[in-house]
Each structure stands twice: as structure tokens, then as C-alpha cells.
Design brief:
The chain is an all-alpha fold and 207 residues long. The protein has helices spanning 2-7, 11-26, 30-42, 44-67, 69-74, 77-99, 113-125, 129-137, 149-181, 186-206.
């Protein structure tokens, strides 16, 4: 079983993996900024749901890495470039929608859960960086004598996805709470979210 294989990994090494993952989780990146923008625009619930959606995208990346699909995509620069530009286009579309959103106070409490979750998942899935990151990060903590490598990749990847989801949801929650304190300036918050989405798009294609 996968979790039995995980039990063969020495505790110090597993602790180092979790600690390293948390450092990376807390470092502001696309996922964090995305959940923050959603929280500022839609409130705490939207920020948390966006973080959950991002986490679902990470789980999908972990599954692809475990099955070898991540390596296949990484081996084709054209595929990575296509994902990058599609992702940038998606973020720019969100920026446009946010910029033109009506500044209605009721809208902050009327978020549609699945829509926000879907946006978070797509934001992560249409970012090629997790593909390369997981291929570089996870294998460092695997050893053949611990058990099947794919067991280790999947277990470690799911741990990373779990901690990352909690952290990203936390960022979205805090951003939503801060945005709620500025409830009288919803139009401004929509514009700020739009600028953040556009900035993420530029950041994605610039690297």
C-alpha cells in the first residue's frame, strides 16, 4: 500500500520534506496571489474556495507526475509554451471580467462555489511551472529501498498538495477578511483584483 511505503521513509527525511514544502507553500506565488485576488474581490468564502480549487489543480499535477505524464509534457517545449499562453489568456480574461464587474455589495456574499473552485483549478492547471517543479522536487526525497517509486511520488505529492491547499486557503481567507473591511470600496477592490490577475498573466509569460 502507498501509505505503508510512506512509513518506510525515515522520519527526519519526511520532516525535511514537509518543512521544505511549507516554505515553498508560504512563499507568495501565482497560487497565493490568485486566491488573494479572489478573496479581495469576493470575500473570505471566495478566497477559501479559490484556494481549494488551486489545491485540486495541484492534485492533478501530482497524478500526472506519478503517471509519467508530467515528464512527457516537460519533454516537449511546445506543449509547455501552449499551456503557458493559454493560462495567460485565461488570467487576462479574468482581469477583464473583474475590471468591468459591477460594484455591488451583495455580490460578495453570493459567490457560486463551483465557479470559484473551477477558476482556481484552471489557474493552477494552466500554469506549466508546477509540472517542472514537481519533477524536480519530489524525486529528491525518494529512494528505491523505501518501496515502489510511484508510491512515494504519489504519497509525497499528496502531502505537498494538502499543506499547500491549507496555506493557499488561509491566504484567501485573510484577503477576503481584509476586503470585507473595505466593503464600501467594492469598485476599487474589483479593479485591484483585475490588476492582480493581469499581473499574474504577465508574470506567467515573462518566465
Amino acid at each position: 500500500m502507498i501509505w505503508e511505503t510512506l512509513g518506510h521513509i525515515p522520519t527526519p527525511q519526511l520532516a525535511a520534506f514537509v518543512a521544505g514544502g511549507l516554505v515553498l507553500n508560504f512563499a507568495p506565488g501565482q497560487d497565493v496571489f490568485f486566491a488573494t485576488a479572489c478573496g479581495m474581490q469576493g470575500g473570505p468564502r471566495a478566497g477559501v474556495l479559490a484556494g481549494l480549487g488551486v489545491g485540486m489543480g495541484v492534485v492533478a499535477h501530482v497524478l500526472m507526475a506519478t503517471l509519467g505524464l508530467g515528464a512527457l509534457i516537460a519533454a516537449h517545449p511546445g506543449a509547455l509554451a501552449a499551456i503557458k499562453w493559454i493560462g495567460a489568456g485565461y488570467l487576462l480574461w479574468l482581469a477583464w471580467k473583474s475590471w468591468h464587474a459591477a460594484p455591488q455589495g451583495a455580490a460578495r456574499g453570493a459567490v457560486r462555489p463551483w465557479n470559484v473552485i473551477r477558476r482556481g483549478a484552471l489557474s493552477n492547471l494552466l500554469n506549466p511551472k508546477p509540472v517542472l517543479f514537481l519533477l524536480a522536487f519530489l524525486p529528491q526525497f525518494t529512494r528505491p529501498d523505501y518501496g515502489p517509486i510511484w508510491h512515494q511520488l504519489l504519497a509525497l505529492g499528496l502531502i505537498f498538495a494538502f499543506t499547500g491547499t491549507l496555506v493557499t486557503m488561509g491566504y484567501g481567507l485573510v484577503a477576503g477578511w481584509l476586503g470585507a473591511r473595505l466593503g464600501a470600496h467594492l469598485g476599487v477592490l474589483n479593479r485591484i483584483a483585475a490588476v492582480m490577475f493581469a499581473g499574474l498573466a504577465l508574470r506567467l509569460v515573462a518566465r
